[in-house]
Predict the 3D structure of the following.
Amino acid sequence: MTLASLVNHQVRLAQRPEGMATRDHWKFTTEAVAEPGEGGVLVQVLMLSLDPAMRGWMNEGKSYIPPVEIDAVMRAGGIGRVIASRTPAFAVGDTVYGTLDAQEYKVFAPQDIRRAGLVKVDLAMGSATQWLNVLGMPGMTGYFGLLDIGAPQPGQTVVVSGAAGAVGQTVGQLAKIKGSRAVGIAGGAAKCAWVVNELGFDACIDYKAGPNAVREGLKEHCPKGVDVYFDNVGGDILDAVLARLAMKARIVICGAISQYNNRNSAPAAGPKNYLSLLVHRARMEGMVVFDYADRYPQAIAEMSAYLKNGRMKSREDVVQGLENFPEALTRLFSGANFGKLVLEVARA
Amino acid sequence: MTLASLVNHQVRLAQRPEGMATRDHWKFTTEAVAEPGEGGVLVQVLMLSLDPAMRGWMNEGKSYIPPVEIDAVMRAGGIGRVIASRTPAFAVGDTVYGTLDAQEYKVFAPQDIRRAGLVKVDLAMGSATQWLNVLGMPGMTGYFGLLDIGAPQPGQTVVVSGAAGAVGQTVGQLAKIKGSRAVGIAGGAAKCAWVVNELGFDACIDYKAGPNAVREGLKEHCPKGVDVYFDNVGGDILDAVLARLAMKARIVICGAISQYNNRNSAPAAGPKNYLSLLVHRARMEGMVVFDYADRYPQAIAEMSAYLKNGRMKSREDVVQGLENFPEALTRLFSGANFGKLVLEVARA
C-alpha cells in the first residue's frame, strides 16, 4: 500500500454553535494523504482526546489560544504512529503525542512539528489511553493546578468537581498521595462509588442526588471547611463550595463545563458567593496547563511511577470511530462519559 | 463638671434593614456616664469613622466579625480623648483611637481596652481626621491590600474603584509612590478631577458618565491591561475590569459597596467574567485589614512621612452631630461623600 492510496477522513467545523454543538455544526471531508516533505513527518492518528476545552475553541474571539477557524479541521490532541518520516527526530513506528486534530492522518512540515507539540511517547510508561489521561494534558492540568496553585498541606481538605473525569481523578488521587483528604463531586452513584472504592477518595458527593446534595455533602464531609477547591465545573457547585471555605482557602479555576454551552455567547454565571473570598481571606486563581510545558517531563515521570506502583489508577471511556466525533463530544457536557473520554480513530 | 452629670447619647440598632438602612432602623438612647473601674478608662468620643463595612455588621449571620446585636450601640471606630483614667496606660488628655461606637462616651473595663484596640495616637503624625483615614483602618486596608496582595511592580497599571474614597485615595497615591501607574474609577467629574489633579493619578474614569464609560475608559487608560485591580465596589465595574486583565493580574477583593444593600439578604451579583481569571492566569484574593494589625505601626510611620513630605494628600468629608448618624451613613452608598466620611461627635 502506497501513501498515495490512503484517504484522510476529517471532521471540520462547519459553523459556530450557539449552545450545545450538534452534528449540523460539523462537516466531514476527505482528502488524499500527502507525502511528508524534507524534514517532515506523517502520522496516523490512533486516538483523540475529547476535552471540555474544545467547546471554547469553537467560539469566536480571544481566549488563551485562537479559535478554530470555520472550515478548518477541528483541533484535537491525540496519540498517533509515525508512518513516514524525513527527519531523524522520528522513526517509522514511533508512537507520538501532539495536536493531531480530528482526522485520520496528519502530515507535518518541519515548522509544524514544534507548534503541534509533537513528541515521542514511551508506552512502557503508560498505555496510549493513559498518555491522553494521567500522563497527558488532563493529568498535567491536575498535577500543576493542584500542587502549584492549590498547594494543599498534609491533612488539609481538597475538593474536586468532575471527580470521575480526566482531571478530577488525577487531582483527588494526587491529593491523597500528598497526604491531604480528598472529597470528590461527581454525577451519579456509580461514579461516586468508583471514586471512593477504586480511587480511594475519602468521600464523593453525588450532585445529582438532590437540589441540596452538594451543600449538605460539603457540610458532612468537610467539617473544617474546604482548604483547596479544584473547580472544573463552575455554576452552582462553585457557589456551594464558596459557602464552605476554610480560612486562606485556594480555589483553582481550571474550567467551568456547566457554563460552556450558554446560549448567545452569554458569559458564565458569576459566583454569587465570591465575597466569601474576603471573609475567608481566600484566593481564586486561574491556570492554563501549557504554562507548565517545560516541567511536564518531571511530572510525567512521577505520575508514571504512581501508575506502576498502583498508587494511581486511571479510567478511560473509549468511543470508537471518527464518524462518531460529534456525538462523542456532547457526552462530556451531559456527563455521560465515565472517565477520560477518548475517541479511537484506528486500532493501535 | 463631674462625670456623673454627663449624659451619654447613643445610637443603637433597632432592627436589621433589608436594603438601605433608614432612620427607622436606629434608635436614640441616653444613659448616665459611668466612672471607670480599677484599671479602666473613660473616653469622650470626638470623631467616628463611617465605613461601608458597617452595613455588613448590621446583617445577621457569620462574617469576618460578629454582627451588631439588636439594641446594641452601633459598632464604630473613632478618635476620642481620655477624660478619666485608672490605668497607667492612659492619661487624662490622651488622644486615642479604637472601637468607641456610635455614642458620646465609652467607659472601658480593663479587659475591654485590648478588645477595642484602644491605642494612643500622636497628633504630630497626622490630624485626628487623618488618623481615621490614611493613618487609620482605610489607610491600612489600602496599604496592605495593595502592597501585600496586589504587589504591583514598577510600571504596572493599578486600577482602584472608589478612588476618591478613603481606601481608594490611599491605594492610588501609594501605587504612584511605588512607581506604578494609577487609574481611578470614581463617580462624577469633580471627584475625577480631584483624583487626577490633586492626588496625581494618571487618569480617572467617571463611572457615571455613561453606560460604557468604564469599559471605554479602561480601554483608553489601560492599553496593556490591568495588572492590579483594587476592588471596593463589585458589580458591573468588577466585571468590566475582569474583561481587561493583563496576564498574571491580581484582583484585591476589599469590598463590594454596590452589593451591600441588596434586598432580602440576596447574595452579591457574581462576577460574570470570572473565567477571565483562567484566560489570564490571574488571581482574585480577599483581604481583611485586621490580619495585619501587628504591622500597623510600621505602615503608619511610613504613611505619616508621606503626609508630611507632601507625597500623599488626604481628604475627609466631615458631617457634624451624632444625631445625623443615620443619614450620614447612607451618603456612603449613594456616593454623596467626597473623601473619607467622618462624623464629628464633639469638637476636639
The CA atoms of residues 146 and 247 of chain B lie 18 Å apart. The mean pLDDT of chain B is 94. Chain B touches chain A through 33 residues (CB under 8 Å).
